[in-house]
Structure to design on (630 residues):
């Protein structure tokens, strides 16, 4: 579980400032995504965590500083080349009505294909592996819109897996899922990391899931990183009060030793 | 259905994924189109048996008179119908896929209206209509109208692109602004017609209804040329369009250059739509309905490219056949394409809904 000095970092932000015109959403932010680890980015709504992830994926261009990919500014790397090294699952991806799971996952091969090589045996093989690993092989001939939320999200993750990149960015992969499906999706993410050695950076809402499933947690507030490190080191009552305005106790999970956030309800204003 | 979905086609290191059902629909459609063309060529004041027409088309046939009637008199008009149908079908399929919205066809987005406005302006302002308000002829028809229509379409498309831009191309905005532009341009066209000489207004009206009558090779050539250049471009762009169906973010994540693709698709669609309008006037509903009909026949997740082209050809040739042979009075083909296309789409929609609910 040791994170830090020994791990290299292919992707990171260097004094990065980014916004949508007007006030910057993320200001002067520096962050390394450690290779071969799972990094979770957490923070209150509007803190700029999605903006950070989108900029890391080259969807947004920083107005100051840069995003570094393998030592170069990511804006200097061709779009297609970026997509061969880094895959992204957007926050609320859309799919046309009737799109089959196999077609969706097949789209993940786009960066590796040319007009004359649109479906090579390798494409077929990688897509099959992606389907099997995400347990969507049996669903491959079903339309995406007929699946449950959890199955659909697994299919989308299969698409990023078919893209066959070492770096995987996930923007709130568990939104709109019930707890069982959130765990199912994050178990899968954890397997991508352990079995396939993928570097994962993901935006998460749920602090307990972030603590449970990531090696490194990055806590953001108002467009800046407030704390980052292994969850057991950085999750404190003080931090949660400062960042989320949340009164909470931090307990240790007796099974994993990982921190568990237990919110404390505010004292009733008036005795009833 | 699953088995019929797609099959890999490999040739050495080259490989494609062939959508089986779409390929079958295109093949069968191609056969239907060929038969319709033969029938279309056989009917007229001087009827020729369909068998003779096919023989003549395939290079046989010894009757010089039949040969002249088929190849010189009738073939150009039929070929215009095929080419324009294919061009409009392709243009509609591309824009509807780009915008992820079935409303986004050139005739709904105002591009056709822009071409029509410019062409009517050319007819009315030069006051050069034929004797008795017939079809425009001479240099105005051959050079002036195509140029005017093309300029009108391109100008409208550029305006549409600029007005829809808001930190990227917003497709919702594109459709709404396009509908607004279309309405404005239609009003402008009406204004021109009201103020025109009666002869000019009459010949403009004939052109506005979308007429295939009296088309010669000079009408066919520009459309065929546009198809020859723009179809391969469309086939290249469709790969990126497939990825863009997953949303802008996902497409960029897959290495698609969004703006380049958007501009390319609009360029191809505007080019095809404007040469079609220049050749036969604004044929109503073809670009809008055909890709949706083709989609329901092929059953994919976006309007199919080839099947839309074939279906477009079928619809327009059928319209030509109906106006020339079935109806007892002459009616512009544009009215027939609207009359066949729209109800057929409605029927398909109702049928698909029923099947889903059952």
């Amino acid at each position: 579980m040791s994170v830090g000095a020994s791990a290299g970092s292919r992707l990171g932000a260097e004094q990065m400032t980014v916004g949508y015109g007007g006030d910057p959403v993320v200001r002067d932010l520096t962050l390394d995504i450690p290779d071969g680890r799972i990094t979770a980015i957490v923070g209150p709504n509007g803190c700029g965590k999605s903006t950070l992830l989108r900029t890391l994926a080259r969807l947004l261009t920083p107005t100051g500083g840069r995003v570094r990919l393998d030592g170069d500014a990511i804006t200097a790397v061709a779009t297609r080349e970026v997509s061969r090294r880094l895959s992204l699952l957007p926050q609320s991806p859309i799919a046309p009505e009737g799109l089959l799971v196999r077609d969706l996952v097949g789209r993940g091969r786009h960066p590796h294909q040319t007009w004359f090589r649109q479906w090579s045996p390798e494409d077929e093989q990688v897509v099959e592996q992606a389907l099997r690993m995400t347990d969507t092989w049996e669903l491959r001939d079903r339309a995406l819109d007929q699946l449950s939320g959890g199955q659909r999200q697994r299919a989308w993750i299969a698409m990023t897996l078919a893209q066959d990149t070492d770096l995987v960015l996930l923007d709130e992969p568990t939104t709109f899922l019930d707890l069982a499906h959130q765990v199912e999706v994050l178990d899968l993410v954890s397997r991508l990391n352990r079995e396939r050695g993928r570097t994962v950076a993901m935006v998460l809402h749920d602090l307990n899931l972030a603590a449970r499933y990531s090696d490194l947690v990055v806590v953001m507030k108002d467009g800046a990183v407030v704390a980052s490190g292994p969850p057991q080191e950085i999750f404190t009552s003080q931090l949660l009060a400062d960042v989320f305005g949340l009164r909470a106790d931090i307990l240790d999970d007796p099974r994993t030793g990982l921190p568990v956030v237990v919110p404390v309800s505010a004292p009733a204003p008036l005795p009833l | 259905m699953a088995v019929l979905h797609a099959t890999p086609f490999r040739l050495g290191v080259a490989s494609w994924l062939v959508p089986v059902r779409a390929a079958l629909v295109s093949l069968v459609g191609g056969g239907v189109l060929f038969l319709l063309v033969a029938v279309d060529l056989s009917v007229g004041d001087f009827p020729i048996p369909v068998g003779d027409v096919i023989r003549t088309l395939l290079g046989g046939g010894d009757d010089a008179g039949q040969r002249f009637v088929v190849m010189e008199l009738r073939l150009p008009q039929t070929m215009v119908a095929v080419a324009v149908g294919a061009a409009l079908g392709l243009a509609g399929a591309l824009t509807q896929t780009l915008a992820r919205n079935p409303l986004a066809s050139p005739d709904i987005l105002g591009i056709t209206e822009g071409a029509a406005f410019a062409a009517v302006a050319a007819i009315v302002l030069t006051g050069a209509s034929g004797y008795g308000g017939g079809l425009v002829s001479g240099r105005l028809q051959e050079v002036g109208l195509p140029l005017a229509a093309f300029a009108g379409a391109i100008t409208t498309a550029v305006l549409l692109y600029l007005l829809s831009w808001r930190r990227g191309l917003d497709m919702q905005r594109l459709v709404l602004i396009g509908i607004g532009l279309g309405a404005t341009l239609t009003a402008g066209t009406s204004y021109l017609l009201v103020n025109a000489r009666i002869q000019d207004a009459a010949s403009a009206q004939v052109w506005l209804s979308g007429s295939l009558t009296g088309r010669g090779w000079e009408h066919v050539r520009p459309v065929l040329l546009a198809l020859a250049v723009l179809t391969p471009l469309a086939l290249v762009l469709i790969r990126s369009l497939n990825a863009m169906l997953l949303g802008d973010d996902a497409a960029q994540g897959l290495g698609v250059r969004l703006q380049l693709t958007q501009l390319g698709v609009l360029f191809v669609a505007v080019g095809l739509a404007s040469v079609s309008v220049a050749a036969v006037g604004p044929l109503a509903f073809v670009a809008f309905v055909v890709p949706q009909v083709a989609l329901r026949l092929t059953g994919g997740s976006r309007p199919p490219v080839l099947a839309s082209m074939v279906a477009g050809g079928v619809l327009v040739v059928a319209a030509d056949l109906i106006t020339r042979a079935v109806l007892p009075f002459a009616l512009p083909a544009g009215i027939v394409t609207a009359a066949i296309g729209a109800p057929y789409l409605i029927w398909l929609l109702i049928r698909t809904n029923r099947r889903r609910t059952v």
Notes: Chain B is about 75% helix and 5% strand.
